[in-house]
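Archive record
______________

***
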Amino acid sequence: MRVLVIGGGGREHAIVHACTRAGHEVLCTPGNPGMAELARVVVSAQDAASLARLAQAEGVDVVIVGPEAYLAAGVVDECDTLGIPAFGPTRAASRLEGDKAWSKAFMHRHGIPTAAHHTFSDLEAAEAHVASLTPPIVVKDAGLKAGKGVTIAHTTDDARAALQDIFTQSGAQAVIEDFMTGQEVTVLALTDGTTYALTPPSQDHKTIHEGDTGPMTGGMGVICPFPIAPEQMEVVRRDIIEPTLAGMRADGHPFRGVLYAGLMLTPHGPKVVEFNARFGDPEAEAVLPLLDSDLAQHALDAARGQFQPDTVRFRGAASATIILAAPGYPGEPQKGIPLDLPTPSTDEIIYHAGTAASTNGLISTGGRVLAVTAVADTLNVALGRAYALADRVDFPGAQLRKDIGARIGATPDHTSV
């Protein structure tokens, strides 16, 4: 099968890796140096119509769309117009991620458990509401912010500052939510809009510093599987995944692709923190190495409305992903830092998230630069191997969290390294 993967980050590198592992010919655009080691990088304009025409010209069997911005721009719609199978939601369906105000209204309309919330299009009204609340307060930019438009404000002044930042934008909306407590977990559903299969649950670590402190990021590390109780997973299926897919069908926007459910396991049961319309990043870098079946075939089947959940298989193992971020991230990351990568062993991989080739070798180009993943029989061993591999990366000034997995008591086991 010939597969086109759209995107150029760590998530797309993980998708390419999964497809090539299954023996497929893979093209990618815009790609990155890590993806270029596995697939053919194609230079193309990145607008939706051009990408669909590229897929047609290359005769690909299926398109897999990675980043949310491409979905919101209508890449899948353009592929549909040309009769090209594409794994991902349409522009209308991707609104589940791209418009948090719409998404919250959708959840309320369909009885999907989430935090109590209010949406505001006016700064003064939002500030007045914040003044009536007791911190911590969750403030979200309703727009598409690549996972970074959320502030957990521990003072009213911090909440006001977040709102003022949001309302510097034209047409802005803010969602203000009650703060939820519990373990945060991600569940991904591969789906054709009706049938679905769940990946093993995973847990990302969102803030830049240890102890879940500092500003929010796109994600600093992942463990998989997260030890969620089977009865809780049944609640997630019954009360969240299935009503969401049914609600999208009922609203005339069937959702195909990857439904990302970011959940909080509250004392009152699982509740939705947010929905995304694609593989998470860096969750994909931890979940996809455990996939023991054919991602490209699943994508094609889902795009055709013929998804077969029983064919989706995952290894009975554990994975850990450690993010190496540039100095200055998540503010203004330093770019152009020279990188020297070691050769990973079996069941280890270094995914490129923000890198480029230069005349002097590999350099950093973004905030989150590398995702270092290891797979092992147990989570503690996977963590030990991932941290050991990260330590061998020559990346001056790199930021990484040393406490990935600590929320559930996991500790790196270095005895097997």
Summary: The chain has four domains: 2-95, 116-178, 183-311, 318-408.
